[in-house]
Amino acid sequence: WEYDETLGKYRRFTDGQVHTDELTGEQLTAANVIVVYANHVETDILEDMVGGGHYSIEIQIWGEGPVTVFRDGLMFQGTWKRWAREEMLTFWDAEGNPIPLKPGNSWFQLVPLDFQIRVTE
């Protein structure tokens, strides 16, 4: 992701290449990029039998965990919370204040708890 100040959004890249929408050919963009760190657990649901079998992964997005929110060219670190299935994820800073999202679309990246992101200026 790279912040485009003129556009006021983040532009998506994959492996250093522009990531485009298949239908429009335009580069994917998001007003907010949210990295949600959550426990990933292998289930007993067999998804693919090739190569000895691959099992489904349950991403546990209930309770709370770390979050990194990118908005308006800034990075906010905090905690995500979701206590019931019908609730939305909410984001809180270290002082317990909500981290508001910019109006517009958001990209959620769910990653394992030990995942490392690299942020450059």
Radius of gyration from the CA trace? 17 Å
Strand order of the largest sheet: 11-10-9-6-12
What distance lies between the first and last C-alpha atoms, to the nearest angstrom? Answer: 12 Å
Helical content (DSSP H or I, runs of 4+): under 10%
Tell me the overall shape. Answer: globular
Q: What is the quaternary state of this protein?
A: single chain
The main β sheet shows up as: 5 strands, mixed
Question: Could you say which structural class the secondary elements and strand pairing correspond to?
Answer: mainly beta
Mean pLDDT: 94
Which percent band covers the strand fraction?
over 45%
Which stretches are poorly predicted, pLDDT < 50 over at least 5 residues?
Answer: none
Query: Helical segment tally?
Result: 0
Total strands: 12
Secondary-structure element order, as H and E?
Answer: EEEEEEEEEEEE
Give a verbal description of the structure.
By secondary structure, the protein is an all-beta fold. The chain has a domain at 32-111. It is built from no helices and twelve strands. The strands form four sheets. A five-stranded mixed β-sheet has the order 11-10-9-6-12, with no helix packed on it. It has a three-stranded antiparallel β-sheet with strand order 1-2-5, with no helix packed on it. The protein has a two-stranded antiparallel ribbon with strand order 3-4. It is globular and about 50 Å long. The relative contact order is 0.23. The mean pLDDT is 94.
